[in-house]
Design a protein that fits this description.
Elements lengths: L9 H10 L6 H11 L3 E5 L6 H15 L11 E4 L3 H14 L7 E4 L6 H9 L3 E4 L1 H9 L10 E4 L2 H6 L3 H10 L5 E6 L4 H10 L3 E5 L2 H6 L2 E7 L5 H10 L6 E4 L3 H13 L4 E4 L5 H12 L5 E4 L1 H4 L9 E4 L6 H8 L9 E7 L4 H11 L21 H7 L38
Parallel strand pairs: 1-6, 1-7, 2-4, 2-5, 3-4, 5-6, 8-13, 9-11, 9-12, 10-11, 12-13
Bound molecules: adenosine monophosphate (AMP).
Adenosine monophosphate (AMP) binds next to helix 3.
């Protein structure tokens, strides 16, 4: 199928050509015809599948068709998404796809002064992309009215709930006109999300894009079993050998992300952290520097990184394994996009092995283990502190330092990584 066969306006087709999109991705091929028929849509898909274009393109097409003479622009489309980064990226996509049209879009999010956002709203927009808090805030200040909304998109609904936005969403729903087309996207569909979707959608069709088929299959995955104290050295080793290019590093905590950046700077590797405690300006700068190649590593927490779209990102490194298996799929979805292949390396401490088992269950794949790296897991180093004292300091335990072996090693077929240690594993969550 081609975009032309979907019956899109020439102005949109030209913009898609500028973007280098040749054919619709599966979610686009399935969703666009449904949406052009005016039906509601439940999209079970994650970022990286092309879902932004899957909703932006048919909305723009319908806005073009519905355009008549008018004195003043009214907000006809509302896209609500959980994070600032996602909001900015969705807005950028709308700008790109609408560049040959008269349609105007803008974005609002918290953490910055509202002045510029209010000014943009005053100029008049057709499409508004927003995070929930700032949206409700500007509605209460009467800068925004939702009474003309024809198209409503709730993006990343599961993440929205995880971040505690449920009450904001419910408030918002009361303000939307009943007569509208609604689009609901979520990467996962737990009970609470199904319930929420029922409150939003009318006569809908469902499109499901399995994450394993879109990203996990395209990305080469490796597991490095390692002790906690050797994680940083292994990270430095990999960033100077197998992953010697732009790498997105994931940390489970904000504090951890800051510490990794400090350690990398000490090792002479340029990096920056993005997480919820960083100002919006700092986050945007870090992202910009990373995209421009000024930073080799961007260290992020799950929430800050959700949906970040960086072209040609080859490497993702999980410094900590996520305790929620779905997050692993999201994380490695940052690489291997739109056909390109990527490498996702994950560190796994003894305590994290239950997380690894959950992940492998979800993706239905045994991730290959790299056995011959210089900081291989040693059981004696993982012993309880009291045992350690008795046994004395055994140092790194035969690894011989990071220069003792030529590289990070290639993954062998999965050895199970020492299941004999099973009895010591515990869920550290
Ligand atoms: P998304 O899932 O919306 O975050 O999109 C993931 C990436 O795929 C973005 O970099 C898009 O620009 C890109 N993309 C979206 N649709 C297409 C397409 N039809 N062909 C090629 N790349 C695309």
């Amino acid at each position: 199928m081609t975009f032309k066969e979907l019956g899109l306006d020439e102005s949109i087709l030209k913009a898609l050509q500028d973007q280098g999109y040749e054919n619709p991705t599966p979610i686009q091929a399935q969703s666009i015809p449904i949406l052009l028929k005016g039906k509601d849509l439940l999209g079970v898909a994650q970022t990286g599948t092309g879902k932004t274009a899957a909703f932006a393109i048919p909305i723009l097409q319908q806005l073009l068709e519905g355009e008549g003479p008018r004195k003043q622009r009214k907000i006809r489309t509302l896209v609500v998404t959980p994070t600032r980064e996602l909001a900015i990226q969705i807005d950028e996509n709308f700008s790109a796809y609408a560049k040959y049209t008269n349609i105007k879009n803008t974005v609002i999010y918290g953490g910055v002064k509202q002045t510029k956002q209010v000014y943009a709203l005053h100029q008049g927009v057709d499409v508004l992309v927003a995070t929930p808090g700032r949206l409700l805030d500007l509605i209460s200040q009467k800068y925004i009215s939702l009474k003309d909304i024809q198209y409503f998109v709730l993006d990343e609904a599961d993440q929205m709930l995880d971040m505690g936005f449920i009450h904001d969403i419910k408030k918002l729903l009361k303000l939307l006109p009943k007569e509208r087309q609604s689009l609901f996207f979520s990467a996962t569909m737990p009970r609470a999300i199904v319930d929420l979707s029922k409150q939003i959608l009318g006569d809908f069709e469902r499109v499901t894009i399995e994450p394993e088929k879109t990203t996990a299959e395209k990305v080469e995955q490796r597991i490095y079993h390692v002790n906690k104290k050797n994680k940083t050295e292994l990270l430095v080793h990999l960033l100077t050998t197998d992953m010697n290019d732009s790498t997105l590093v994931f940390s489970r905590t904000k504090h951890g992300a800051n510490k990794i950046v400090k350690d990398l700077e000490k090792a002479g590797i340029n990096s920056a952290a993005i997480h919820g405690n960083k100002s919006q300006t700092a986050r945007q700068k870090a992202l910009g520097d990373f995209k421009d190649g000024k930073l080799q590593a961007l260290v992020a927490t799950d929430i800050a990184a959700r949906g970040i779209d960086i072209d040609e990102l080859s490497y993702v490194l999980n410094y900590d394994l996520p305790n929620v298996a779905e997050s692993y799929v999201h994380r490695i979805g940052r690489t291997g996009r739109a056909g390109s292949s990527g490498l996702a390396a994950s560190f796994c401490m003894l305590e994290e092995r239950p997380f690894l088992r959950d992940i492998e269950k979800l993706i239905q794949t045994k991730i290959p283990v790299v056995n011959d790296h210089p900081f291989e897991f040693k059981m004696e180093d993982a012993a309880e502190p009291s045992l350690k004292k008795q046994g004395g300091n055994r140092g790194r335990g035969g690894g011989g330092g990071r220069n003792s072996k030529p590289s990070g090693g290639k993954p062998k077929s999965n050895s199970g990584g020492g299941n004999r240690n099973k009895s010591r594993s515990r869920n550290s969550n």
